[in-house]
Amino acid sequence: MVNNAADVHISQLISLLNISGTSYDAVTASLQKMTDLMRSFETRCDLSNDHWKPIEAIAKECRQFLIQNEISESELSLLIELLRFLRNSCGGLKQNLNYVLGHDDLLNLAKESIGYFIQKESPKEITALKIAVQLFGNILVSSEHSKPLVWDLFFRENKFRHLLQHGDVTIRECAMMVLFNSMSDENSECIFSSEEGHEIIFFVTDTLLFNQIDWGLLFIEQLLNRANFFDCCYNTLPIKHRLLILDIIEERLKSTQEDQSFSIPGALVSSIKNHFLKNITHISEIKESDTEPCETVSMLSILCTASICDAYISLLQNSQDLLQTTVEVLKCIHLLGKESCNVFSSLSDLKYLNDEAREEIASHPLNGFKKNLIRLIGNVCCGCKNDQDLVRKLDGIPLILDCCKFDAKNPYITQWCILAIRNLLENNLENQVVIANISAAGELSDPKLLNEMGIQIHSENGKICMKSLPFAS
């Protein structure tokens, strides 16, 4: 039944083409019936060379439209319908794709349509461009061997640059589909090593700032699989785009916790660590109104997330420069917060603040920053005696205890302090003695807090003894 329908429509189309003076509108209406049949995979499989001959004739005619200064409404409708037929017929079917690739009038029509319509602005012209780009997307999906052809057209002829800046977001989405599916090791290297490639990353991330497009996210995630992404591409981007990249990295790391096969290279985490160490030394110099620390804050959050992933914990635990700097920065901002009322000062009560003030606190770049410093310290010290000892030598244990109080600017800081102390004391007698001595001196007077930390202090034969309690799950 399907075969008969295709044969009937093709016969009608051939008859129209053989009649002199047939209107383009009549040809378009007849071709549309064939296009509708191409929605079925079964029908697409049944296309023969005889079916393709009238399609080639129409393509040859349509190519002449593209050398004119202006295309009439009826000519444009026929061209759009032909592009739609080609797009549908190539969907997931290699034999039809090979026919299109092997016949110049069909392939060149698709190429020339992109070049012609890429600067056009009317709705129908934008539709023609979108369908032409989708056609190349179907070509890529149907054949891995078509990547060089598509890459030459879209990258080397600078089509990506224009398409990814197009005013219509659906055009940008289609371009991202082609971009992602055309990636190979060689093409990724072109992105990393060329100015055009860096522009493509800029345009993709610029769109992603305002539109959640999966193809764009997949493209960025694909680039993150390369260990040299930070060295080659990251610093070429403006701050807003860099923050977006960091958000994507953190989301991917969170996925890694559930699926260890879905990860990013350890070298990328190491690059983030190095950038963090370079930038964090200036954190204490910021003022209340500054927003510049956003990047450092995001990197700290990424390191915290990475520190609970099996793939990265050893890398972070072996980076004692990271732990030392984190403890020193925590000490610095904690003391600054005590000296005067500033961005690092604790806020013990929210009930006297209006909604605007609360929103300002919640949205400030440094909201939760001190908590995350403690979170990172606690995580890297878990089961690592070298790191536990380093924190003790840096006087980090009394520091964390002193931070263990409610602070509206650092939600859940008390809980993270408790976990950090627990990890610092586990199987470490020297660190347990530090806590015992603090309690003996009367500097830690809250027994409830000690119990929450899993610590019990008591006197035995005139000596202060400490017992580590089991933690309830």
Automatic annotation (TrEMBL):
<dbReference type="InterPro" id="IPR011989">
    <property type="entry name" value="ARM-like"/>
</dbReference>
<protein>
    <recommendedName>
        <fullName>Ataxin-10</fullName>
    </recommendedName>
</protein>
<dbReference type="GO" id="GO:0005829">
    <property type="term" value="C:cytosol"/>
</dbReference>
<comment type="similarity">
    <text>Belongs to the ataxin-10 family.</text>
</comment>
<dbReference type="GO" id="GO:0051301">
    <property type="term" value="P:cell division"/>
</dbReference>
<keyword id="KW-0132">Cell division</keyword>
<dbReference type="InterPro" id="IPR051374">
    <property type="entry name" value="Ataxin-10/CTR86_families"/>
</dbReference>
<feature type="domain" description="Ataxin-10">
    <location>
        <begin position="369"/>
        <end position="466"/>
    </location>
</feature>
<dbReference type="InterPro" id="IPR019156">
    <property type="entry name" value="Ataxin-10_domain"/>
</dbReference>
<comment type="function">
    <text>May play a role in the regulation of cytokinesis. May play a role in signaling by stimulating protein glycosylation. Induces neuritogenesis by activating the Ras-MAP kinase pathway and is necessary for the survival of cerebellar neurons. Does not appear to play a major role in ciliogenesis.</text>
</comment>
<dbReference type="GO" id="GO:0031175">
    <property type="term" value="P:neuron projection development"/>
</dbReference>
<keyword id="KW-0131">Cell cycle</keyword>
<dbReference type="Pfam" id="PF09759">
    <property type="entry name" value="Atx10homo_assoc"/>
</dbReference>
<dbReference type="InterPro" id="IPR016024">
    <property type="entry name" value="ARM-type_fold"/>
</dbReference>
